[in-house]
Amino acid sequence: MFEADRPILSSTQDRLGRTVFAKYLARAMLDHQDPQSLVVGLYGGWGVGKTSLLNLVIEELQVAASNMFDNEKPIILNFSPWSYSSQNQLIYSFFRRLSAAIRQTPDLENRERIIHLLELYVSFFTHKPVPKALRMKRSLKSRLLKSKTKAEKEIYGWESGKDLSAVKAELNALLRKQKHKVVILIDNISRIEDHEVKQIFQIVKSMGDYANTVYLLSLDKKLTINAIDRLYGSDGKEFLNKIVQLPFEVPAISKQDLENLLLDKLKKVIAFAYEDSWDSKYWADIYYTSLKHFFTDCRDITRYVNTLSFGFNRVKEVVNGVDFFAITAIEVFEPHVYEGIRDNKDLFTDLVNEAFAVDPDRLSKDKLRCEEVLDRAKHISRDILQQLLVRLFPRLLSIYKANSFFYHSEALARRNHRICSPDLFDVFFRLSMPTGYIPDSEFEAVLSLAAHAEAFDQALTRLNQDERIEKFLDLLDSIDPSKIPTSHVSNIIRALMDNADLFPEGENTLLSFNTPMRIHRIFHQLLRRYDEADKRFEIFSHAIKQTVKSLYIIIHELNVQTEEHTEDEDADTFIPLEHRDFSPQQLDSLKKLSIERIKFWIDVKRLAEHPKLIPILYAWKAWGNKDECQRYVADLVQDDIGLITFLVAALKEPIEQAISKLEVNPEWEKYLVNIESFIPLKSIEAHAELLFEDGYFEKLREREQLALLIYLALIKSDKVKTFPKTTV
Q: Could you point out which of 103, 136, 403, 560 has its C-alpha 20 to 30 Å from the C-alpha of 414?
């Protein structure tokens, strides 16, 4: 539901009760019987609905015309000078439009003569010849007597044998005989250039004493007077009073009418998105205390509703509607405040509330930050804006209304999809926030949470849910490690290690690292805050013991550390002993701890489900008990699901290629080592063939089917006849 910023066209769209005035004005103009023309003025500021009122007048003129005899119907010219440019173009276009309106009145007596005189009149003003099609038709005798060359000669007003006053007098005499009223409506006078304002009034003045002619001029009185003052030096008000005989002030739209118009439009948005879930009580609290004061005219409403409709349709199912309506009003009318809210997530949500709820120093700093955002307001009073923000973001109560009682629950806010919930905050800014964007203030706020292990862990989870964790890791990798207190290092390493497997893995390229390597760099920088290897070992071993959500990151980290311990000084990964994070003995101890974590995952029956199963098994085989590792795999593949799971993990790369290329590649044989390293190939052949021939095969997911097909194809099983096309 989008609306152009345009006026209404008919009385059926009138929500301001102006139809009655428009009807009376239109009838009064038609009933005007004075031999002199009448100039009516509609005065009003920007956005009060002058053009809409003109359209209502035109509608009534057309209704009246439908009830008149053909020889009495008014000639109506609706002219907007804003559509034309340059002095001559404006005058020429006006008279051309007037001539066209007269030509469309077939019952006009002496129509051809009136058009001819009018064209001569135009020629005097514009210094352009009369168009050939609009010249008076000559008699047959005249055409025979005059030569063709002379007949085709261009005709100017001053060559007609009449001066301007004679043309005007004859035209006026002919118009006085007509029953047709000429009604000329000129809109948007205040929008044109000063010299064009002058041209409009010259037109009105030049035709000011034509009979049966009524003008209706729409303008902003103040702007028009200023334009005349600039043209003539002064007396703009007196000049306007001489031109306009009957002025009407179009009042500003009343607050009540404006409110009715806004609510009428918003009902359509609400009905489109919600049925029974709209919180009317919360809306009333937001709207009547703050939001209603944002709107001053119809154009405000149009801008707001268009912006709201565009964004709301894309997030309506996941946001609180009242909150979205409110934040959109701030976006439209106070964009700098909107950006300030967007860029200070920690200030407006419960992101850091638990950690700093009663920290006076923190609250003092937060107030200064909030005051800076409020000071950006230009359109809305600061007090009203503050009132709105406190309702949208209950955390601000601790800053502005510390002694007031107000029940607020983060769990309730999340359930109601409120903007104050840190989990949902970013959704409200999807159309303005670049993907992965983390303002400096939010980064610093999240980093400050490292003083509290659980709070920092939750913050990482939220960043991952928002798909911004990679940007956070990038910023963390770029920061000067000395700016992070050593007391925070342990919590940061522990939280990163516990969440890393849940993060997007990313890709290793010539210019960038994937997530595990990024985290390795961060671990290294943080550990180097301590000079003692024993302290580094203590922190890292504690983190491994506490990790329950991730496993591969431990294996990856210790593999990288192992490469750095290589004895080959020509190797690219070699690092001198004094620059290593751990001693060889400490590294061995960490590997034993990693085996304990692998066994923990086996105990909770999660190891087989890990997407990095094969690298983890390789680590177990290399650092732990090889026989135990192989027994685990042997037990795993006894089960149908276990065998399929193992094959999917072992043949991951061939499966990815098969999905896109749809054919077996003989080079895939090298991936059989991922199976042979843990169990003989032939030991699972019969089981795999049985699964392939069973009707259950058709119920498997695509990757699972491909795992069986690729394995059987690579071991040359005669059970696989074709390699069917897969779905991409």
A: 403
The backbone region for 39, taken as left when phi is positive above 0, alpha when psi lies in -120 to 50, beta otherwise, is beta
State the average pLDDT over residues 24-45: 85
CB count in 10 Å sphere of residue 178: 21
Kindly state the helix (H) or strand (E) to which residue 622 belongs, with its residue range.
helix 613-623
Contact 610, 616 (CB under 8 A): yes
**For the segment 247-284, what is each residue's pLDDT rounded down to a tens digit?**
998 887 778 888 888 888 888 777 766 656 688 899 99
Helix (H) or strand (E) holding 92: helix 87-103
Q: What is the pLDDT of residues 285-325, one digit of tens each?
A: 999 999 999 998 888 888 899 888 888 878 888 899 999 99
Is the pLDDT higher at 176 or at 220?
220
In the sheet with 246-249, reading across from the earlier edge strand, the strands are: 75-79, 182-186, 213-219, 38-43, 246-249
Q: What burial letters (b/e) apply to 9-21, b meaning 16+ CB within 10 Å? A: eebeebbbebbee
Q: How many residues belong to the chain?
A: 728
Asked if the model's pLDDT at residue 523 lies above 60, the reply is yes
pLDDT score recorded for residue 143: 45
Going 428 to 430 to 434 to 436, the CA torsion angle's sign is: positive
Q: Which CA distances in Å does 623 have to 284, 558, 627?
A: 65, 10, 12
For residue range 411-436, what is the model confidence (pLDDT) as tens digits? Answer: 888 889 999 998 889 889 877 766 56
Token pair of 156 as six digits: 């100017």
Give the three-state DSSP class for 340. Answer: helix
Residue 438 · residue 473 · CB < 8 Å: no
Cβ-contact 524, 545 below 8 angstroms: no
pTM above 0.70, yes or no: no
* pLDDT tens digit sequence for 130-159: 666 555 555 444 444 454 444 455 666 566
The answer to whether residues 675 and 640 touch, using CB atoms and an 8 Å cutoff, is no
693: phi then psi, degrees, rounded to nearest 5 = -80, -20
C-alpha span between 59 and 62 (Å, rounded): 5
C-alpha span between 495 and 446 (Å, rounded): 12
* E strand or H helix that includes residue 168: helix 164-176
